[in-house]
Structure formats: C-alpha cells, structure tokens
Amino acid sequence: MTATPDAVPDPTSTPAPALAGRVVVLAGGLSHERDVSLRSGRRVAEAMRAIGVEVEERDVDASLLPALAEHPPACVVPLLHGESGEDGAIREVLELLDLPYVGSRPAACRVAFDKPVAKSVVARAGLNVPPGVALPHETFRELGATAVMDALVRRLGLPLMVKPAKGGSALGASVVHDAAELPGAMVSAFAYGTTALVERFIPGMEVAVAVVDDGGAPWALPAVGIEPDGGVYDYTARYTAGSTKFSVPAKLDDDVAAACAQAALTAHTALGLRDVSRSDLIIDADGTVWFLEVNVAPGLTETSTVPLAAQAAGLDLGEVVARLARRAVDRCQTGPS
C-alpha cells in the first residue's frame, strides 16, 4: 500500500506541545560517522534549547545506561549515524529500559540499514531500483576476484556504483567508469563493510526527500536538489560547506516533484518506518524517479538536506524534533507501535 503525498502542514497553526522533563540527545558513538553524528547532535540540541526544551547531550559509552536508569529522561533522540546507530541495536536497548525515543523501531531499522534488503522491499512496493548485486567479501575472494568482476561488468555494464551494503555518508562509495577502476572500488567498499553493493549507475539529478510523521499521515518535505562541485555527492561534498550547491525546493516539474514525494512516502511506509526518514533518489533524463537508499537517522548538520528542507517549508528544526519527541512520549504511554 502506498501513501498519498500530503501538503506540508502550516507550522504556525499547531505549535509543538510542551515537553515535561529533559530530552537526551545521543550523538557520537564509535562508527566512521562519529564526527557527523556529533555535529547533528549539537545542531538539534541548540535548536531545541532555543524553543525552551531542556536538553542533555550524551555520547555512547559505559556510563550511558546507568545514567539513563538513574535519571530517566522524558525522551531520547538518537542521532547516531553508521552501523552502531542505525542498525536498531541502540533502540533495542532503549526499549529494554522502557524509554521513549524518536525514530523507527529496531526491526524496521535493520531492514532499512541493509541496502540490498531495503531495495527488494521498496521494489515490491512499486519503486524503481537500479539493477545490482550484493557481494560478501568471502564470496568475492573464494570465487576469484577477476572472474566475479568480469561477470559484473558483462551483466550490469558501465558505469557502476560501488558502495558498502550497510553504512552512510557515502563512505567507501565510488563511481566506476572503466573496468580497470573496479578492483580499487571494491577494496574501498570492503574497507567499510563485509558486503559490497554493486549497482548500475543511473546518471541524472540527485534529490533527497525527507518524510515526517508527527501524528497524522506521513508527509514529505520539499525535495532538495543536490549538485556537488565534483559531480559525485561523496563524504567531502556532503559535509564541507560550499562543496555542493543545494536547490530547495529542487528545480523540478510539478509532476516529477510529486513523484519524488510519493517515492519517499512509499519507501517510508513499505519499510515500516516512523517519525522521520530521508530517501535518496535519482531522476534520470526521461524523468523517471529511481530509489537509491533510505536513512532512518538522517544527518542534521549545517550542510544536511533535512534541515534545509524544513527551513524551505517554513518549519523550525527544534519545533519539528520537539513534536516528534512529544509523540514518542505519548506512544510509550499507550504501548509500542
């Protein structure tokens, strides 16, 4: 079942309800994306404090659980990126402690974080996904790297996109234009995970669409058009100010913009996500929308697309997160969903 795109709510009509007690923002962790997580955490903490919310910023270490158990917060906002923050494990522990938290439940996180699995789910829901193959390192080595790479090029053609099957921020991802570049790309992907996802590269305009579900039907924020200076939206382009040109809303025909919103909503619904997600899409020369991946803990730094989209929609980031935190508190009181 797919969701129908809804208009962005009027942020002035229903201000975020007050939160009783403090909110703990979890940021940092030990993944390769620790720095991005810390920046997201600071941004959100500052935005929530600006609207009067009591916020405590915490890293993930051995002191965290005793502190949460001794002084339970009203709500936890996990902003941990990478495997340790997006595979559902931290959320499993928060549920063990009966603590309300913002974001998707553990099982949905595990599915969304595994890019090949998420692709298969959204493909069944009707979205276009690039043809690709997931290759564990063991299979790649045991069958012979050269033979496997030759088969990849014959089946998928060139250019190719190679990236870790799990992970974010484009770490270990690269575009292969020539078969001679494929070995190095595979090594880069395996440096960040045990399985590489090799896909047919879809040229076109990259857009990011965030979905927010703060109590009513999920709705999509304006699409953000992404034009990196180097042509590839890699780690540097994502987190270095000035390295990427963003257009908000993206410069799209109305029907294409609606298709992008529908794709993000379909992915959010099909994967069983809640509260907030961000889908990364490509629009090819024919105007076809292709789903690339989804993020259950999207970056909220100064150069991240979700805050840019929220601002373009007239929404305050602190108000958005506070509303999601209020919903998490209510949800915990009525039982998990």
From TrEMBL:
Keyword terms, alphabetized: ATP-binding, Cell shape, Cell wall biogenesis/degradation, Cytoplasm, Ligase, Nucleotide-binding, Peptidoglycan synthesis
Catalysed transformations (reactions): 2 D-alanine + ATP = D-alanyl-D-alanine + ADP + phosphate + H(+)
Domain of life of the source: Bacteria
Cytoplasm among keywords: yes
Gene Ontology terms for molecular function: D-alanine-D-alanine ligase activity
InterPro entries in alphabetical order: ATP-grasp (IPR011761), ATP_grasp_subdomain_1 (IPR013815), D_ala_D_ala (IPR005905), Dala_Dala_lig_C (IPR011095), PreATP-grasp_dom_sf (IPR016185)
Enzyme class: ligase
Pfam families reported for this sequence: Dala_Dala_lig_C
Domain ATP-grasp: 119-326
EC number: 6.3.2.4
Coiled coil: none
UniProt pathway: Cell wall biogenesis; peptidoglycan biosynthesis
Cell compartment(s), UniProt: Cytoplasm
HAMAP family documented for this protein: Dala_Dala_lig
Membership in a protein family: Belongs to the D-alanine--D-alanine ligase family.
Function: Cell wall formation.
Protein name: D-alanine--D-alanine ligase
Protein's organism: Nocardioides massiliensis
